[in-house]
Amino acid sequence: MKEEIxxxxxxxxxxxxxxxxxxxxxxxxxxxxxxxxxxxxxITPNQVSFLSMxxxxxxxxxxxxxxxxxxxxxxxxxxISAILDCADGQLARLKHNGTFLGRFLDGGIDYISSISVxxxxxxxxxxxxxxxxxxxxxVVFTGITxxxxxxxxxYYRNEFLFNSKGQSNFIANELxxxxxxxxxxxxxxxxxxxRSLLNLYILYSKIQGNLIxxxxxxxSSPEEYIKKNKLPMWLWNINGSSTHAFILLIxxxxxxxxxxxxxxxxxxxxxxxxxxxxxxRVDYISSKEYKSILAENNNSEVxxx
Length: 305
Description:
The protein is mainly α.
């Protein structure tokens, strides 16, 4: 029985390398327990995603009330939101009922929750600073850079998942698959709302690709990709959304959300730049090695003839 549960838990995960440390030791196990509770019900992954969004919005609202109790409640609500954010994907993998809309919701709801939390923090600190306008500027600027950080972590996480399965260029594949789904809905003359959401996801993916300046990286094998990118992926995950939720909870215990803002602004951006430099170096070296292997293979073919 114990072995069956462990095996089922493993099936509910993506690839362990793309999970943050707090996901592995805290969020994922709790999310799996919740998933087991609702597994035999009619609750869908998309409904779990919406529940995650509600708790994310609730987190921002509680924080905006400023009291020690409500700020702590906001931190707890964000933790619940993060657990549910893990649970929707785990439920979809166990039930094999993931959808294109679900993939959009999973990412989009994260941003909605983050916006709510940053607005809540903005209201929380407006009366604490001598210059409320300056505080709002810091919060908004931090929120924008936070979104960029989240987009980069999300991109490299998905790239790792794709390449570890022997595929490449995550964004190109996503755009193609989502466009096929949109074309199918158009042909069936239905789902205008879903089509609109999927088009939004395509727009987001294009912006993400332009921001990171995606190139079609080649590796000799999935094993080679994992070997080269394991360290960069681990470094990206240190600045992931689950880690942020955990740090915000700690800050909310002491009602010091200004510490979270400075953490996200200073550490978050400096860390992202450093890891991006490391990632680009890994990509450059891997590309050179791949071209060298291709050249050797071509030379071998020429010698054979």
